[in-house]
Amino acid sequence: MHDAGPGPTGASSRPRRVTLIGSTGSIGTQGLDVIAAAPDRFAVAGLAGGSNTGLLASQAVATGAGAVGSASATTDELATAIAAAARAAGVRAPRPELFTGPTAAAEVAAWEGADVVLNGITGSIGLAPTLAALEAGHLLALANKESLIVGGALVKRAAAPGQLVPVDSEHSALAQALRSGTTTEVGRLVLTASGGPFRGRTRDQLASVTPAQALAHPTWDMGRVITTNSASLVNKALEVIEAHLLFDVDLDAIDVVVHPQSIVHSMVEFTDGSTIAQASPPDMRLPIALGIGWPHRVPGAGRGVDWTRAATWTFEPLDEDAFGAIRLAKQAAASSSTHMAVYNAANEEAVEAFHAGRIGFTDIEDTIRAAVEDYDPATVLAGEELSLTALAAAEAWARAAARSRWMQAR
Ligand SMILES: NC(=O)C1=CN([C@@H]2O[C@H](COP(=O)(O)OP(=O)(O)OC[C@H]3O[C@@H](n4cnc5c(N)ncnc54)[C@H](OP(=O)(O)O)[C@@H]3O)[C@@H](O)[C@H]2O)C=CC1
Ligand SMILES: CC(=O)[C@@H](O)[C@H](O)COP(=O)(O)O
Ligand SMILES: [Mn+2]
Predict the structure, then answer these.
(1) DSSP string of 246-273?
(2) Do the annotations mark residue 82 as ligand-binding?
């Protein structure tokens, strides 16, 4: 079993040191909130961000992080931004170790001053930091689902037992439910889906929805890509594969049910017909705190359900004629070890194209379907086994295949 370092129980000799990859995003900033609220349990080790250098620099000053990485700034720009943030805060500028460029996030993830890495990058670019954190022996609190889904067996092989803890709300719920039962007693996993902003629409009605409508998630405030993926149900499709990889449950024993209130975050049905569900108001700070504090709960991380008020929780089947992303992902995952990299890369390209006004909403799913159906690993990979090289080739093929659809349409 992986040694997570000091337990953040308040009674340990020092707080657990946390590196945040994607510290400027939705998961990253909520991770910083959790850490700031529990200074006896957690301290910031490292920070890595993308293009928001000003916020990254302010975070570096506020937290005293020992390592700071930026994908977009030069070392001089990052140092200057940190000095400016310190001046603005009226404090002495800290002198963290700086990392810049495309490998910065992975270098910060591997940085030795951490016990735990919270990976909150968006997209398959999260794979390198995921592998770097695991190889460095850190506990990995994983929000960046794409790295597990794309990396598949590569990520699983790199993780020692207990080293990878899910932060995604559904998988945190499943991990919590599974603490009460042995895996041989699991009948099936049931992931809840909010249904997104377009719940109840037909496929024809989906064709004309706008990016602004897709970004109006009914229950969660998240980054642009995952919010769009929730609207298309691609997020739930990725999560089915994520659950399959995390918990070694067959794909045909993983179901999705639409639960618009997002209070039951998922459930495990055991072989005797008993179901254990995890419920809490929608707030990512709870699964983030549990992820970085694993296996300990952090008191006050989230608020509980208010049982004194009348409330209705509803569950309904998913309309798979309108939303085909989950069926398509199950097919892709069963096809080859690199098909999900193709699925994800085609989706990443299509989401960007949708927000750029190049394609319509239903073209997202059509783009993924075409890529998954046309992809032939024997041709694209020329016999290469699952490896970072093979994944890069599969992704490059998928991105080119996706783009060619809207280039041709011009
Ligand atoms: N938000 C949520 O509630 C949930 C999110 N997740 C998952 O967590 C991940 C993050 O989602 P979310 O926080 O919403 O996304 P955001 O878009 O809000 O944040 C993404 C973060 O990644 C950073 N980033 C982008 N490129 C790089 C790079 N090359 N190197 C380092 N950092 C980079 C961004 O930096 P910058 O802004 O500076 O460019 C930003 O900090 C996704 O995989 C998502 O699916 C899962 C469950 C819930
Ligand atoms: C908070 C979280 O974990 C998200 O992945 C959330 O599940 C998105 O909501 P959907 O159920 O609409 O995909
Ligand atoms: Mn989720």
Answers:
(1) HH---GGGEEEEE-TT--EEEEEEETTS
(2) no
Percent of the chain, pLDDT > 90? 94
pTM as predicted: 0.97
> Residue 383: its pLDDT value, please?
85
C-alpha 239/C-alpha 235 separation (Å) is 6
Rg of the Cα trace of the chain?
21
Q: What are phi and psi of 34, to 5 degrees?
A: -60, -45
Spatial separation of the C-alpha atoms in residues 358 and 352, rounded to whole Å: 9
The tens digit of pLDDT for each residue in 318-340 reads: 999 999 999 999 999 999 999 99
402: its two tokens? 């996706």
103 is in an annotated binding site: no
CA-to-CA dists, residue 408 to 357, 362, 402, angstroms: 15, 17, 10
What the block records as the tokens of 170 is 């559904």
Nearest to 149 by CA among 96, 70, 226: 226
User: 167: buried, middle or exposed (CB in 10 Å: 19+, 13-18, 0-12)?
Assistant: buried
Number of other CB atoms surrounding residue 382 within 10 Å: 9
Question: Residues 6 or more apart from 75 whose CB is under 8 A from it?
Answer: 98, 100
Low pLDDT (below 50) residues in the chain? 10
Q: Look-up: residue for tokens 């000799």?
A: 13
Q: Is residue 168 in contact with ligand 2, taking CB distance under 6 Å?
A: yes
Query: Which residues are near ligand 1 (CB < 6 Å)?
Result: 22-28, 48-52, 71, 105, 120-122, 125, 143-146, 168-169, 220, 222-224, 226, 284
> Per-residue pLDDT tens for 234-290?
999 999 999 999 999 999 999 999 999 999 999 999 999 999 999 999 999 999 999
ipTM over 0.90: yes
Predicted local distance difference test score (pLDDT) of residue 13 = 75
d(CA 119, CA 134): 11
Q: Which residues contact 140 (CB under 8 A, 6 or more apart)?
A: 116, 117, 119, 130, 133, 134, 159, 163, 164, 165
The answer on whether 223 is annotated among ligand-binding residues is yes
